[in-house]
Amino acid sequence: MRRMMIAAVAATALISTSAIAAVSFNYDTGTGFVGKGDVSVLYGWNNAQAKANMTADTLSFYTLSSSEVEATCEWTTGVKKKTTHRKVRKIAVIDANAVTFDVRNNKNGTVTGINLLGYGADLGSTTDAPEVGSVCLGDGNEDNGANGIITSVVEVPGSDSGDMLYVSFGGVDYALPNTPIVTTTI
Predict the structure, then answer these.
(1) Does the pLDDT at position 2 exceed 50?
(2) Hey, which residues does 60 pair with through a beta bridge?
(3) 164-169 vs 172-175, strand pairing mode
(4) Residue among 94, 36, 52 nearest 69 (CA)
(5) Which of 40, 51, 97, 125 is the most exposed place for a label (fewest CB within 10 A)?
(6) Residue 142: what pLDDT?
(7) Interatomic CA distance for residues 53 and 33, integer angstroms
(8) E strand or H helix at 147
(9) What is the pLDDT of residue 102?
């Protein structure tokens, strides 16, 4: 009897877990699917609330990725005795993109999920990585500093967060779990 009870609880947990894990998203194209339950659970919605709230006017999806780069600035000082200086600065780079979507309903009008249709607007970056050859301030002191040139930009190993898909409603954002869509070219 105890063994049957444990099996029943385990089966229920497995079904419950799979019911709220219906997110599949292709980061290359911005397409995929988010199950109604994945969003409803996060915001505590019942079916009526999901139907009312899952609209383009109130709900949004976006991706966010971050990494850190090291930029090397080189500059020369001195008139008679020229000295070349190097300074490495770490810079955080964050990029965000909107994802367009369409709500999927069954024949009775009940929301069943959200079809992600691709990337929309580029929501911008908080910091753009500098480009090799661009001007930089050598020592960080505008009064005494010499302008330099960015000579290298390298991503810091292990700093890439990878892309994450987020849902936003009423100013509250959640990261969604993802089952990546793997595409292969033959």
Answers:
(1) no
(2) 168
(3) antiparallel
(4) 94
(5) 125
(6) 46
(7) 17
(8) strand 147-155
(9) 87
Look at residue 146 in the predicted model and tell me its pLDDT: 67
pLDDT tens, position by position, 76-101: 777 777 777 777 777 777 778 888 88
Full DSSP string of 78-136: -SSS-EEEEEEEEEEEEEEEEEEEEEEE-TTS-EEEEEEEEEEEEEEESSPPP-TT-EE
d(Cα 178, Cα 128) in Å, to the nearest integer?
27
- Strand, helix or coil at 77? strand
Percent of the chain at pLDDT above 70? 73
